[in-house]
Amino acid sequence: METKFGIMLIIGLLLCGCRSEEPSRKPVTADHAGEPVQVTVQGCKGCHRTMVSDSNHAMACTVCHQGDDSSSTREQAHSGLVAQPAHPEQMAASCGSCHPSQVAAAVTNPHFTLAREVNAVRFHFGASSPLSSLTQVPQREQIDTPLALSEDLLRKRCLRCHLYAPGDPYPYVGHGTGCAACHLRFENSRLQSHRFSPPGKRQCLSCHYGNYVGSDFYGTFENDYNWEYRTPYANRKPYLRPYGVEQLNLAPDIHQQRGLFCTDCHPSSGHDQPPPQQTALSCASCHAWQAGRPLPALPGLQVIDEQLVVTGTISGKQHQVPRLSDPAHEQYAKQVACQVCHGQWSFNDEVTHLLRSESEDYDPWERLTVQGSYELESLLEHNLYSEEDERAPAMADGISGELSPGIWYKGFGQRRWEAMVVRRDTDGIIKVFRPILDLRLSMVDEDESVLFDNIRGGDDGLRPYTPHTTGAAGLFYRDRFQHLLPDKP
After folding, report:
1. C-alpha dihedral sign at 117, 118, 119, 121
2. pTM for the whole thing?
């Protein structure tokens, strides 16, 4: 019996040995780049097997990406390849071949040009004429004026998230370019699917994060950069920061709580400009609507039993739109903006300090290695903690991508959300204001000589802002603006 068992064991071992010498049947992955690849399916699908398009875009890959779909070799297949057909420089020829009106409208849309943001900063620091697009911001060879310094700030520090670039490679921040930024899903800066769809939360917040409008709608507030003021208490161990900096959870907007989404109120935010005769939409467009009047130009609105009802474009939920009933609405409607009473909180980041440095002294920034900029964070981590050679204090241009001397550090006098600033605007309406342009610009060269010191713009930097933190007004709403009303005789 023992002899028989021994013979069977030897046969089993021999069989295992033979099997181990058989060629591997594992599919070839990207980790085997450079090795000969046996492609069983010719063309793009031979390698890109997991990429599936939606039914409206079930066409050959080469329709948008060009290249050679008849080849089974990488070199020939990628000949003439357009890697980013939705990029603003390519989308007219690709997306525009089927969607010409949308593409034509998109290129002049504020989401593409960022003209309002760019000109606000430039005028604050001395510009006399506007630019029509972020691509026109001058690339200064010599920084000798506050305006030139602010334009370098725009190109290197501010303009990292726009539709000409893929954004910072944080998990929820990296996005596509051009049309793909809003209509395709990215995660960890990688395309997740070729299924085109209307923009969702992930797409909108890939740009509208970090204490900008969008963050407040979802009730998130970005922490300070100093490691002692971030929550939970931070250390140098790796941890997940989906938007680059930890966030506090505050009260989200009541519309978000009810299941509504950005495009329910901002339907033309990406393209398809509204007709010139259309009246600007406001809170009153829905909440002051009365039976018999035309419906506001918003998706998902209908009238049921003489009551205005909205259906969420994402959630599919139906909600009756509350009508204005409190006498205060009629009393103050022409004097006070809605959010003065209904805003639950607003961003109050003041003062924002920005330093352009060519110095190689990085030690003072150890507590501020988290900067809301992946590029700068990587440079500081490397130069402070790596045993490899230091990297030069250089930063990529957010528009051209070119690397040049000078990095931009950022810090705050304080980051707060309480005590909304309320004042009267130039049009006479009392509004919520925010220290958007409460900036201080400084600059030191490689010898640590101070070239600009704490330069401020032409005014206090407060600008009208609509906090997307709508909620009930509360009992003491008048206390927010009573002091700004004219004294009664």
Report:
1. positive
2. 0.85
